[in-house]
Amino acid sequence: MQGVSDPDSIWSAEQAAAASADFAELYVAHGGVLWVAFDPGLARCGLFFCRDGVVRELTPPGFSVRSRVYEYGGGACCTTDQGAAFVNERDQQIYHLLMTGAVGAASAANLADSREIAAEAECRPAAPTNIEPQALTDRVNCRYGDLSFVPAWQALLAVEESHEAGAVVHRLVRIGLTGHRQVLIEGADFYAAPVADSTGQRLAWIEWDRPYQPWVATRLCQRESGERTRVLAGQGSDQALQQPRFDAQGRLWVLSDKAGWWQPWCVDGQAQPQGAPCDHAPAPWQLGGRTYLPLENGEFLLTRFEQGVGILLVGAAEPFPERQLAENFTRFRSLGADASHFYCLAAAPDRLPAVLAIGRSDGTVRLLAGGDQPLAEEQLSRPQPLTCVAGKGERCHGFFYAPIGEPARPPLVVFLHGGPTSACYPVFDPRIAFWTLRGFAVLDLNYRGSSGYGRSYRLRLAGGWGELEVEDILAAIEALAGEGRIDPQRVFVRGGSAGGFSALRALAELPQLRGGASLYGVSDPLALRRVTHKFEADYLDWLIGDPQQDAERYRSRTPLLQADRIRAPVIFFQGALDAVVVPSQTETMVEALRSRDLPVEYHLFVEERHGFRQAANLAEALRAEHAFYRRLI
Description:
Layout: H1 7-10, H2 13-18, E1 22-29, E2 32-39, E3 44-51, E4 54-57, E5 77-79, E6 83-87, E7 94-98, E8 124-125, E9 134-135, E10 142-150, E11 155-164, E12 167-176, E13 181-186, E14 190-196, E15 202-208, E16 219-224, E17 230-233, E18 241-246, E19 252-256, E20 263-266, E21 292-294, E22 299-306, E23 309-316, E24 322-325, E25 331-337, E26 341-348, E27 351-359, E28 365-370, E29 384-389, E30 395-401, E31 412-416, H3 430-436, E32 441-446, H4 455-459, H5 468-482, E33 491-496, H6 498-509, E34 515-519, H7 525-531, H8 539-543, H9 551-557, E35 570-575, H10 583-594, E36 600-605, H11 615-632
Parallel strand pairs: 4-8, 31-32, 31-33, 33-34, 34-35, 35-36
Antiparallel strand pairs: 1-2, 2-3, 3-4, 5-6, 6-7, 7-9, 10-11, 11-12, 12-13, 14-15, 15-16, 16-17, 18-19, 19-20, 21-22, 22-23, 23-24, 25-26, 26-27, 27-28, 29-30, 30-32
């Protein structure tokens, strides 16, 4: 098998693990830009602020900015008039951090000297601050997320998750900067995206009830002073809504997929979708999404997916003439703006995630943080869009990465994302670079049920999980083999969580596979259903069916019960602290395969939960998986 002669000298497992650093939750305030950055070396998320070309960390030692509402979190910070509020990972309480020299949430950053994309970030690091955050909440049984600040109230809006007497209750609450808590809205099973207008008189939010997920059916609700709650959209189960926003004129907007795609709709105006028929947001697994932004001049800053590729645009709502921005990037999140610049978190096929400042007048892009290009062009495999016909003539999508050196008919590793209602994106993935430098081709598969391709594609997985993605894996393998791009006898499948379930299902159904990997993967859906958290309590019934009425479907799709059909070797990775897929579930699957003398490896990481975060463990898992496959080819 070909590849580069010494891949470890170019891109080692340790370098790939370190490159899993990322950004989240950008805000524009106080004459600068604030964001959250994840450091895999420390396994913590810090709050950073950039102003006048200087970056400083705001979170002191012992704090990490991360919410665990709905287990997946999001919306863990926001700016206030005096500083920033954030959720501390360890205790899940809200803290307020005063910022020296804060100049008001509406102040514009004056970022001059805009130039073309630089090789390095233009904000210089400064020493961390020593400001001690002040606790605003002290409710040990509660978690908080989806924070937003209402200047008219001088208070925060938040989703509160209360674990009380064996039940989990969600509410919308108001938290004053003095710590006073007030329950605003309760009664629904779930809440998200609370937002108030500039006067503080009008409150809007998203809510939904079991058995639905937020990408299946939600409601847009509103309450004005002195009035009862009104449902503005989503009375039935025909649409999912997300990200309500008030524009400068006080009109309420929302993303709705009623027309088949998550598009902006003006609730207070003509009830028609705006923009192109594309998804303008991914599935809301996490709180705090901001993928479109009404601007003060009646225009919009927004991102959308075109065949899985993200683009960033600015334009008017009607008739929506558009101008594309930051064309070298292919995924955009957490949009913001001031008088002179647009801001976002962005990713591209050739560089690490970045914080961008984009000139409003000329579109010039600056890197405020991140954005390093760790590999030379000749060492980099770029994503190639792949579409093929799967079961019933339907199409599935993905991105193919050829190995470096272009060996004839190389082995293939199929990446299966989690969720399963999630997606992969055509951006630099340090793990994919690790494989392609070692002579492996990679297919990052957006099987039917992935988000980013419209409502019908996303909902196609209902009742079909464990079958549809296997059909799509087979269709993609056959398409790539038919074009001579891979060796169909040397194909491996791997995935984490729900992707691990799909990998095990593929190994049971596709005997031509050479091997696979399950990272904290689901091997017993019914066992998962018994212990899973409230947010996903009904998800398996939607994905597979009712356990009683569809018992045979569960039996035929449970990897543990189909272990005798798996003929290829498997490597497993598990976190000892995982409360979603508990270690005993994975260990039972391991023993079922070992009892048949099948080559199996099992790696348990004692300090990891569901989804590995520590750089040393990420590197060890990558090395072990590569060594495992090498022995099989």
